[in-house]
Amino acid sequence: MVGRVAGGRVALTEAHRFANVPVRVGGVLHWDVLRLHRGVLTGLRAAAEEIGGPPAGVGIDGWAVDYGLLDASGALIGNPVHYRDARTEGAAQRVWARLGPRELYAATGLQHLPFNTVFQLTAARGTPAFAAARRLLLVPDLLSYWLTGEEGTELTNASTTQLVDPRTRNWSAAVAGALGIDLGLFAPLRGPGDPAGVLLPDVLDELGLAGEVPVTAVGSHDTASAVAGVPAVDGDFAYIATGTWSLAGLELDAPVLTEDSRRANFTNELGVDGTVRYLRNIMGLWLLQECLRAWSEAGAPQRLDTLLRDAAREPGLRSVVDAGDPAFLAPGGMPGRIADFCRRTGQPVPHRPAEIARCVLDSLALAHKLAVEDAQRLAGRAVSTVHIVGGGARNALLCRLTADACGLPVAAGPAEAAAYGNVLVQARAAGVLGGGLAELRAALAASAPPQRYAPSGDAAPWERAAARLAGARGGGAP
Known about the structure:
The protein is α+β, with helices and mostly antiparallel strands. It contains 19 helices and 19 strands. Strand 1 and strand 2 form a beta hairpin.
C-alpha cells in the first residue's frame, strides 16, 4: 500500500496484492515465508513505480505469535510453522505444570490461545532446529530483517508471545525463567515509531532504487496498527477489527489482570502510544472463508455477493455457534463442523449455503455483542459507539447485525485500517504529522469517514440467543 500524507490528510493506493498460502510438508503446516518476502519485494517495486521514485519510508505489520529461527550466520532455519498446526496440542498442559494459568495471566495478561508463542516454544524444545537457533524473530520482524539486516522485536507483537509484562512493557524474566525460555533468543525490543534500519544495498539494487530508504517500526501486530487506524473522534468507543479473526474490545491506559478477566478470556496486548488493547479473539470471517473454500472444492462455488444477499433473507438467529470454540480453529470441512455443533446443541441444522452463511454471521454478531459487553463490565468503561474496521467493514450484513446485537451505533471502516495505522505512525516518525493518537485519528476521520449503522432497538432475540449459547456450553465463558 502506498500512503500519501499531506495537509493533515492521508490517502492509500494499493500497489500490489499477493496470496499468503500455507504449505503442509511432512505433516507440518508452514508459512511460505520466502514467497511472502518475494511478494514484499514485488510490492515495493510496484510502489516505487506508482510514486515515481523511492518511498519516503517503509513499515511492516503482520500477524502475531509465529516466528522464524535464525542460525549463527543469520540464515533462516526452515520455514516458520503455522499457528494452526497441531504441534502445540498438549503444550499448554506442560506449561501449566510449571506455571499455572492464573499465575501466567497475572504476569502477562494474555488470554489463553493454544498457539500462543510460549506454547509453540514449548512444543519446539528439543528439536534440532531449536537447538541450532541463535535468534528468534517474529514474522514482521523477520521480513524487516531481510530488508535491512537489522534485528529487532517490535513491542506490540512481542506482547502476544506471553512473555511480556503489560505493566512494565518489558520482558517478564520471571515467566521466562519458570518456563526455561532463554530471552537472549529475542532481539532487542523496539516500539512503534522507532527506526528499524534502512534498505540494504542489495535490496535497493533489486528494486532499481538509489538513496537511503528508512524502515520504521510501526505497530507490527496488524491489530495494533488497525486499532491505531480507528477513525474515532472521542475516546468512548469499542472496536472490532474484523478479517480472518475478529478482535473485539477496548483501548485502555492500563491492563486488566483480574481473575474475572482471565476467566472471560480477555487479553491485554500492547498498542501504539502506551495503550493496551483489551480484547477477546473471535474466530471471525475465517468461518465463512473456510465454508467458501469447502464449497469450491466440492464443485459448488459461491459468489460472495450473492451468498450474502441470500443470507440476509434467511430467518435470523435460527442457529448460532460459539465463535470462540477451538473446534473451528483448524482448516477443512467447516460446513460439516458448523452442522455438527448445531446438531450437538439441539439447534436446527443449517444445510444450504445461505443458511450456513446466516448462521456464521449471526454467530459473529452475537460474539461481538458478548465481547463488547464483557469488556465494558470488566474494565469499568462504558462506550457509545462500536467501530468496525478491517475487511469485515465491507460486509454490510455483518455490520448491521452487529449494531442490532450490541444495541449500539456501528461506524464501519476503513477496511484497510491496519495500512492506515501503519502509514500514520510512519508519517509522525518522519515529522509529517504531529500529536498523539487523537490527532492521527482526526486526520484519518477527515480522510476516510466511516459508514454508519443504527441498531434496530430489539435486543430480546439476541438475549435469547446468548442464553441458548451459554446453555450449550454449560454457562461457562468462551
